[in-house]
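Something for you to look into today, if you have time. Could you write out one complete protein record for me, on any chain you like? The space below this message is yours for that.
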Amino acid sequence: MSLAIEAVAFKRPKTGFARTLTEELKGSYDRMTNHPIVQEVEAGKASLKLIRGFTREFLPIVRGTYRRMSMRLQHAAAHDYELQNALLKEVAEEVWHTPMYLKWCKKIGVKVPEDFFEMYLPETYAFVLYIDATSTGRATLEESSGRVFEREAFDGFNNYSQQSSLVQTIAATGLALRGFPFAADKLADGFMKHYGATKDEVEFWSEHGTLDLDHADVGVDIVDRYATTPELQRRARESAIVSTSLWLNQWDAIYRKYGSN
């Protein structure tokens, strides 16, 4: 289910940068697609403890996504209606996902909010806080770490530009998360085949198998067209690599705590 917003084609030319970056990240995408959590669900070997633990640690990502995606609009220039359209379309499609997820929680006996009062894993906080930082305040990462991103100037235009913040936040989500849709497809199939879930109960996972790939493709397209300088490309690359690493670290930590090993 989604609100219908017609896509508007971008006029900006492509640079080819995003294709190079996605090739660099292919190993990380494959790691998520074939993560032990996914493999165990797919084979029907995942315990209810693992499934519930995975579901619990995933909630902060789900609940915050609509808000984070809305905040990305601040990085779009007022005159750039093509970009605004693309970002709004993603927001409209994302708004329905929290109810889908709560339906999944009910299926596996995870109580909301009772089962979410305890502290999450540190790796969950690390990933969520990172994608929050890239989505909200401009130059948050630079101001926090005090790093010089451009040789030309420490407090120059690029450091605080909308375009710089844009490529960071889009790279942290659209480029970094391209392994998840394929993992979500496997999870949905495994939950239905081995755990008695219906198509309606796994709607969150099946929706993200196709819809999130569309979102990821939009992210790739935006970064390819807007990361037009070496400085912007360096930021996009770093943001994508950090985000991917933090999310995989979270999945690894979930498996260590709740998995069979």
In short: The chain has one domain: 17-145+157-258. DSSP finds twelve helices and no strands in the chain.
